[in-house]
Amino acid sequence: MGILDYFRPVSAMTAEKVREFLRNKKPEEYNLVDVRQPKEYERGHIPGARLIPVGELADRLRELDPDKPTITY
Amino acid sequence: MEGGIRAWEGLLAEGVPESRMAFFTVASRPEELIGLAWTLEEGSRKFYSEISSLLDDREAITLFQNLSAAEEHHKLSLMNLYKVLSGAEPDPGFPGSLIPAETSGDLMEGAVRVSEALTWAKGKVLVEVLELAISLETNSYDLYIKMERQMGDENSRRVFVHLSREEKEHLAWLAVLLDKKL
Fold first, then answer.
1. Where are the domains of chain A?
2. Which of B10, B22, B141 sits opposite A7 (nearest CB)?
3. Do the interacting molecules here have an ipTM over 0.90?
């Protein structure tokens, strides 16, 4: 066993898969969260994304519906 | 989403050493978790210390030096907790005697290689380096929350709660500077 055995790969959706997902769902069917900083969000974000900077995420989880899939970037 | 907004915009992220790994406990003893956390802190300390020398921005250099010092404090907190839990001084092989193999110090939070991250950072703009540091601190924050849940006694949990709060604070430092430099 090596030190890397303490970790497991985290699977992530490709941008293409996310496009397809968003195309096939209504906005009320998912949480789409932009975890970058406000200025980055202002410069451009995925349509419909909600801004919750990563440092605030743990304190603002209640803003997300746990029954819906969540996509973050 | 893999590759973040750059991938969405059709841009290729150039070998960003972002973490695609998350801590998943296979450790059975608290001492083992402490040894793992200490090793990752040492990797982060090394990264922050060395990244400072690649940058020109005074504010960023100061921030990364502060982060490096903070990781050193975390190592000390972990070492002290180890002494309390084990009732003994760490042996000279610490933390190699607690966790399996590969304690060369080239691994940091999120199982990102320090050497790989430093190679990537050469020639990158400050904003990109800050974004990487934010992802590392996010992993660190996540790691300590998970480790706190694994700890059996109140005192150990307090130490890990303290560490996770500090990682959250580091995230805030980085976010403030990133916002300023955008």
1. 29-73
2. B22
3. no
Instruction: Enumerate residue ranges in chain B where pLDDT < 70.
Output: 12-16, 18-19, 26-28, 101-104
Q: Report how many domains make up chain B.
A: 1
CATH number at residue B126: 1.20.1260.10
Residue B114 lies in a domain: yes
Long-range contact set of residues B163-170: C-beta below 8 Å, sequence gap at least 24: B163/B37, B163/B74, B163/B77, B163/B78, B166/B70, B166/B74, B167/B137, B167/B140, B167/B141, B168/A55, B168/A58, B168/B141, B170/B67, B170/B70, B170/B137, B170/B140
Does the A29-73 domain belong in CATH 3.40.640.10? no
pTM of the model: 0.89
Q: Which residue of B has its CA nearest to A19?
A: B8
Q: Give the closest-approach CA distance of A7 to chain B in angstroms.
A: 4
